[in-house]
Amino acid sequence: MKQLFFIISIIGTFLGAQPKETIEFQLNTISGQVLNSLDKTPVKNLRVEVLSGNNLLKDSTVTDENGHFNMDKVGYVWKPKILLLSRDYHKLTVKLNPDDLDSLNNIIVHPMITPIPDDQKIPSLAKTPIESRAESFFIKGSVFYYLSIVNEQFSAERIRIKFRKVIDDGTGFIMLNINGMYYEPERCYVPQMGEYENLAYIIDDYFPSPVFGPSGLPQYLDNNLLEPTIIYGTVFDAYTGKAVVGAEVILAGSSKRRVTDEHGKYAFQVNKSGSYQIMVNPPFGYSSSQTGISEILVKSARGGWYRSNHYLNP
After folding, report:
1. Is 8 within the bounds of a domain?
2. 164, 200, 206, 238: which could join 212 in a potential S-S bond, CB 3.0 to 4.6 Å?
3. Rounded to an integer, what distance in angstroms lies between the CA atom of residue 16 and that of residue 148?
4. Strands 92-95, 81-85: parallel, antiparallel or unpaired by DSSP?
5. What are the tens digits of pLDDT across the range 196-235?
6. What are residue 33's DSSP bridge partners?
7. Percentage with pLDDT > 70 across the chain
8. Gyration radius of the chain's alpha carbons
9. The domain containing residue 219 runs over which residues?
10. Beta strands 229-237 and 305-307: pairing type?
11. Residues 94 and 160 in one domain
12. Angle CA(218)–CA(147)–CA(271) in degrees, nearest 5?
């Protein structure tokens, strides 16, 4: 009996000594200021993400003009950390310690992020034609958002790109022809670092003279204007490369099912971030074996556009 009590005591001591970071804890508000590690200046327009220990996105925001950020009511997170992302700075991950929480479960951090040296940055876009550079943001099969103002209210349309061409209008500015329709570039928002950023903000800084008209629009599209995230794809014959019609595609863990159309395509709308698994039941004439991306990490419930193609063996 004494030996049993001794073993139980050791186990209890070991479990009690486990670090707090292995336990899920509640975060109310995460705030702070991000500074350049070299000159201690504020870093603006930098993306800040809150991730769990298994890299699921819990919340995100962007630093303001003074490098400040704030996220409210984050909730319970297992082994939380923040990830800092920018095109001009090295990626930085900061683990959050429960000992740093105040009595209201708020935490303040002041990370220092290191800029990428000029000789390691993407080459200057001024060395490439304006038209081809603008076209590079409109990839066939992907999406962009077009912002409109109706009765002093913003609205945004998600547009899937089937065809694109950038045209110099002869006045020094450019126009976009997407799917046979013309769009004003300064109203276009394209995927950048997990957000949708105004095309004019991205490109104008790289050229000696403006290539867009002034917009006065926000640099990033508000998350509330984005449509729900979509997981889509095509089921192919692994040997012929042709589309497979009539395959049943299942979003595991839910009741959602789709049957591929005459082009072998399917699509799901999801309303939560997290990890999703795609399963395919083959039609008659195909085996149950399949290849393709079956698990997809959705970082945001809105604005996502994830492709997952699958291949069936006859």
Report:
1. no
2. 200
3. 57
4. antiparallel
5. 998 877 776 555 555 555 556 888 899 899 999 999 999 9
6. 68
7. 80
8. 24
9. 122-225
10. parallel
11. no
12. 95
- Burial class, 184, CB count within 10 angstroms (exposed 0-12 / middle 13-18 / buried 19+): middle
DSSP-derived secondary structure for 201-233: HHHHTTSSS-SS------SB--GGGSPBEEEEE
Q: To the nearest 10°, the Cα dihedral for 243, 245, 251, 257?
A: 160
> Has residue 187 been placed in a domain?
yes
* 49 and 33 housed in the same domain: yes
* Mean pLDDT to the nearest integer, 153-177: 81
As beta bridge partners, residue 236 has 243, 311
Q: Are residues 145 and 218 in the same domain?
A: yes
Which residues does 163 contact at the CB level (< 8 Å), separation at least 6?
A: 140, 177, 178, 179, 180
27 by Cβ neighbours in 10 Å (0-12 / 13-18 / 19+) ranks as buried
Phi, psi dihedral angles at 89 (to 5 degrees): -130, 155
Do 60 and 142 fall within a single domain? no
Of residues 189, 148, 181, 85, the one with CA closest to residue 200? 189
- How many Å apart are CA 63 and CA 24, to the nearest integer? 26
Q: Is the pLDDT of residue 41 over 50?
A: yes
Q: Which of 118, 151, 181 is the last residue of a domain?
A: 118
Q: Does residue 92 fall inside a structural domain?
A: yes
Report which of residues 98 and 293 the model is more confident about. 98
The total domain count for the chain is 3
What token pair was written down for 79? 């082994």
Q: End of a domain among 118, 138, 159?
A: 118
**Does 106 reside within a domain?**
yes
- On the 0-12 / 13-18 / 19+ scale of CB atoms within 10 A, 83 is middle
Distances (CA, A) of 144 to 91, 200, 250: 25, 14, 27
d(CA 181, CA 191): 20
